[in-house]
Specification:
This is DUF4399 domain-containing protein. Residues 38-128 form the DUF4399 domain. InterPro entries: DUF4399 (IPR025512). It comes from Paraburkholderia strydomiana. This protein has 130 residues and is mostly beta strands. It has one domain: Immunoglobulin-like (Sandwich). Helices cover 0% and strands 40% of the residues. The protein has strands spanning 19-24, 30-32, 35-43, 46-47, 57-64, 81-83, 90-94, 98-107, 123-128. The strands form two sheets. Strands 2, 4, 5, 6, 8 and 9 form a six-stranded mixed beta sheet that branches. It has a three-stranded antiparallel beta sheet with strand order 1-3-7, with no helix packed on it. It starts with 18 loop residues before the first strand and ends with a strand.
Length: 130
């Protein structure tokens, strides 16, 4: 039986010193009510919409309660992997009560992580009922 081959996505290079980070909320924050704004930051690269092939430019993906996906394939799009393909740098999300992890991963024009990948530190927040 022939081995199963997964086609790897073509990847885009990121510049040295590129850094993605969560501006708000901070690690350990307690959120009341579950609705919150996530503010996304990027250093030494630009933010542009999906489909725009510009050097050193990509768009944010917010990973909620999950680990980094395969870094050589298109980033999934589901409730744990939110795409901000219009070039958004903040987003209003709603989470149920409990502990949650948030992490950002920058994708290129085709939602594929850069090489080397540009992602934030994973933070943990707690959502409490009002």
């Amino acid at each position: 039986m022939a081995p199963f081959n997964i086609a790897l996505a073509e990847q885009t290079a990121s510049p040295p010193g590129a850094e993605e980070y969560i501006i708000w909320p901070s690690d350990g924050a307690v959120i009341h009510g579950g609705k919150l704004w996530v503010r996304m930051g990027l250093r030494n690269m630009g933010v542009c919409p999906k489909g725009v092939a510009r050097p050193n430019c990509g768009h944010h993906h917010l990973l909620i309660d999950t680990d980094l996906p395969a870094l050589d394939q298109e980033i999934p799009s589901d409730r744990n992997h939110l795409h901000f393909g219009a070039g958004e740098t903040d987003a209003r999300i709603e989470l149920p009560p409990g502990k949650h992890t948030l992490q950002l991963l920058l994708g290129d024009q085709n939602h594929v992580p850069f090489v080397p990948p540009v992602y934030s530190k994973k933070i943990t927040i707690t959502v409490q009922k009002d």
